């Protein structure tokens, strides 16, 4: 038997199987070591961590005991391995051990892959894949380690994925016009998990499409009673709308034509189907909503939000119409309505510089007025505060960070995933107040990915990956940044989010710049700039290309004077012109004027290019020997020791911060 044939099961009690059947894993701590390594997903777990995880109060010989457990596991997993030959499956690496199981060797990993693949398949194939995935479960994940703290997070994550898979299977049956088949499983599902509002919605819809209108309405009444009496929650507006639609026998509730029937039609026909469905939905909306101004306002914000994530003209149109919707809501004199209209625009934002500062200021003003007038409602308050934090990006007012902290506190107290990711986006926008904060942003990105993936919040999952891409690049971990770039691109392609590719293309250019491939990086930057043009993000676009090329020359070793000869102030430098002017003056031989321009520089704005602009200031100060500027830039950059200046943007870099600090220290001595 070779190690490649070993399979592991954690969807139930932890087991390992080879060609001959179940492998003997000896005692509970042997199994715990194996389970702990599977939880780590091929990463190294230090021996010290294993000791902490296995014992509340480790005995004197704990390290030796762990080594004994590992040795016994290796003999069980690789019985044919020759003596003294290195292990290939349970390996020793650095300070600990890792289980290098193949991607399909663990049932939980196969389950996740199957569920992810099902999302991309037509309904009939998706149903088969979901059935295969759900059949892998033998009981609760890591069933024999339910009390272990190290298993708690993974058990919870897998349990949530399973619940979503059950609900996704029901959605697939509905798409195939087989709603009656979904009813028994959904009923059992809700008996165990009565808080799953999506499942209540699916069950009522399945019953209605099966000709059981009375049963569907009874289910919705049961849902309302259960949610209010057992959980103290009001049903969501979506459930309430479903009840009204069932009573009205709305044609939109009928099953669509089976998706398989148009499966080979091609993109043009699919687009025609989509257009027809849109028109039909609009007509139904027109009949049911009629002249209800408030309902139309809230629906309009939903459309504006969807426009924003398409980029280009959609993003620009969203900006144009957003303030009009807010103003109309304020005119109604209802703070709760205004709060809903403002807070519904929860579009993930990755760039902490506003595309329209004047508009952002007006939105903040409306949000602050609404906060002052709002009679209560933590959720509404949270969304308003998150909006303030987002719209005050790039400013140095203490209100932005304060609003971000309060929004996050409320979201965590309410334990609402959608609120939490919105609040975390605000926290991210306010995490650039000084240099060296990439680790903090990395932690925010990690939580965004975890929460969003668990609850199906795709656009925030993409945001989390992009945030981590930026942070890992700043920390000079390009392997990690590559993983997040790939994950973001995969999600962007699957869910038609074109702006993702704009940022990952710029990251590709940064990657070349950071590895010293200057000529290729310059070409990549110019190509990325062409794609960025017209993407609807002037806050990102303006001045970015010339700034990236200037940073590229400096990271390639050019002096400020040499780099300045290539600076064309006739180009659109946008907000970065003050930092370009000293270079242009040096390149033209105007040292005195360059010194004056250097001394007029403000502190860089609190955004992802803070370190890069500090490095540019340092380059000019080194050239002209300005001791005060050198001391100032040294103090600002010191917190970013070990990071790459500007790479926190995920777009460009001016080289290692440590190199700049060393040069500044030497220059200060000479000055």
SS elements, strand count:
8
CATH architecture of the largest domain: Orthogonal Bundle
Number of helical segments?
A: 31
Rounded to the nearest angstrom, the radius of gyration is 29 Å
Please outline the major beta sheet: 3 strands, antiparallel
Strand content: under 5%
- Can you give the helix content as a percent range? 55-70%
Global outline: globular
The number of domains: 4
CATH class of the largest domain: Mainly Alpha
At CATH level 3, the topology of the largest domain is Arc Repressor Mutant, subunit A
Report how far apart the termini are.
Answer: 70 Å
Please identify which CATH superfamily of the largest domain we are dealing with.
Winged helix-like DNA-binding domain superfamily/Winged helix DNA-binding domain
Mean pLDDT: 88
Strand order of the largest sheet: 1-2-3
Low-confidence stretches: 258-292
Q: Which class best fits the helix and strand makeup?
A: mainly alpha
Structure description:
By secondary structure, the protein is mainly alpha-helical. It has four domains: 173 residues, Winged helix-like DNA-binding domain superfamily/Winged helix DNA-binding domain (Arc Repressor Mutant, subunit A, Orthogonal Bundle), CATH 1.10.10.10; 73 residues, Serine Threonine Protein Phosphatase 5, Tetratricopeptide repeat; 104 residues, no CATH class; 159 residues, no CATH class. Helix content is 65%, strand content 3%. The strands form three sheets. Strands 1-2-3 form a three-stranded antiparallel beta sheet, with no helix packed on it. Strands 4-6-5 form a three-stranded antiparallel beta sheet. α4 runs antiparallel to α5, α8 packs antiparallel against α9 and α18 packs antiparallel against α19. The longest helix has 27 residues. About 5% of the residues have low confidence.
């Amino acid at each position: 038997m070779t190690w490649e044939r070993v399979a592991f099961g954690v969807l139930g009690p932890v087991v390992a199987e080879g060609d001959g059947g179940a492998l003997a894993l000896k005692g509970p701590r042997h199994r715990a070591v194996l389970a702990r390594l599977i939880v780590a997903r091929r990463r190294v777990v230090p021996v010290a961590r294993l000791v902490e995880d296995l014992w509340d109060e480790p005995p004197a010989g704990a390290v030796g005991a762990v080594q004994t457990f590992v040795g016994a596991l290796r003999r069980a997993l690789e019985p044919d391995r020759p003596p003294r030959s290195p292990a290939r499956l349970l390996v020793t690496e650095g300070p600990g051990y890792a289980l290098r199981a193949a991607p399909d060797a663990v049932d939980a990993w196969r389950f996740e892959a199957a569920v992810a693949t099902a999302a991309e398949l037509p309904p009939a194939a998706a149903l088969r894949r979901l059935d295969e995935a759900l059949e892998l479960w033998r009981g609760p994940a890591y069933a024999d380690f339910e009390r272990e703290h190290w298993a708690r997070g993974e058990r919870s994550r897998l349990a949530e994925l399973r619940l979503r898979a059950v609900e996704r299977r029901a959605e697939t049956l509905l798409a195939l016009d087989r709603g009656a088949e979904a009813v028994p499983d959904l009923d059992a599902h809700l008996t165990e998990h009565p808080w799953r509002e999506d499942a209540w919605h699916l069950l009522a819809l399945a019953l209605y499409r099966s000709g059981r209108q009375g049963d569907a309405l009874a289910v919705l009444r049961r849902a309302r009673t259960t949610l209010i009496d057992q959980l103290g929650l009001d049903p969501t507006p979506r459930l309430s709308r479903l009840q009204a639609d069932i009573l009205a026998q709305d044609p939109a509730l009928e099953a669509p034509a089976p998706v398989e029937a148009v499966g080979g039609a091609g993109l043009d026909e699919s687009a025609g189907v989509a257009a027809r469905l849109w028109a039909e939905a609009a007509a139904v909306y027109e009949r049911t909503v009629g002249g209800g101004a408030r309902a139309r306002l809230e629906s309009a914000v939903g459309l504006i939000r969807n426009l924003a994530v398409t980029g280009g003209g959609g993003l620009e149109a969203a900006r144009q119409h957003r303030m009009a919707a807010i103003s109309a809501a304020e005119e109604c004199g209802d703070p709760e309505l205004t709060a809903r209209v403002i807070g519904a625009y929860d579009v993930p934002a990755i760039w902490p510089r506003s595309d329209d500062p004047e508009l952002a200021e007006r939105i903040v003003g409306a949000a602050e007025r609404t906060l002052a007038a709002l009679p209560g409602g933590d959720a509404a308050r949270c969304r308003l505060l998150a909006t303030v934090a987002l719209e005050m990006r790039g400013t140095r007012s203490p209100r932005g960070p304060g609003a971000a902290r309060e929004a996050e506190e409320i979201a965590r107290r309410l334990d609402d995933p959608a609120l939490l990711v919105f609040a975390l986006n605000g926290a991210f926008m306010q995490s650039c107040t000084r240099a060296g904060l990439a680790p903090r942003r990395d932690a925010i990105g990690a939580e965004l990915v975890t929460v969003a993936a668990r609850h199906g919040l795709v656009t925030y999952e993409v945001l989390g990956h992009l945030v981590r891409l930026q942070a890992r690049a700043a920390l000079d971990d390009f392997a990690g940044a590559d993983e997040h770039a790939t994950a973001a691109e995969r999600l962007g392609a699957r869910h038609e989010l074109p702006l993702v590719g704009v940022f990952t293309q710029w990251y590709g250019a940064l990657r070349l710049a950071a590895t010293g491939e200057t000529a290729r990086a310059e070409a990549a930057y110019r190509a990325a700039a062409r794609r960025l043009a017209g993407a609807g993000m002037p806050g990102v676009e303006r001045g970015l290309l010339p700034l990236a090329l200037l940073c590229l020359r400096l990271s390639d070793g050019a002096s400020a004077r040499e780099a300045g000869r290539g600076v064309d102030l006739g180009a659109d430098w946008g907000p970065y012109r003050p930092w370009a002017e000293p270079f242009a003056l040096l390149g033209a031989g105007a040292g005195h004027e360059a010194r004056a321009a250097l001394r007029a520089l403000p502190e860089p704005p609190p955004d992802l290019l803070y370190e890069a602009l500090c490095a540019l200031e340092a380059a000019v100060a080194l050239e002209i020997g300005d001791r005060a500027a050198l001391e100032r830039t040294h103090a600002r950059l010191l917190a970013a020791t070990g990071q790459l200046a500007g790479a926190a943007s995920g777009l460009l870099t001016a080289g290692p911060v440590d190199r700049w600090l060393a040069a500044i220290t030497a220059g200060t001595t000479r000055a």
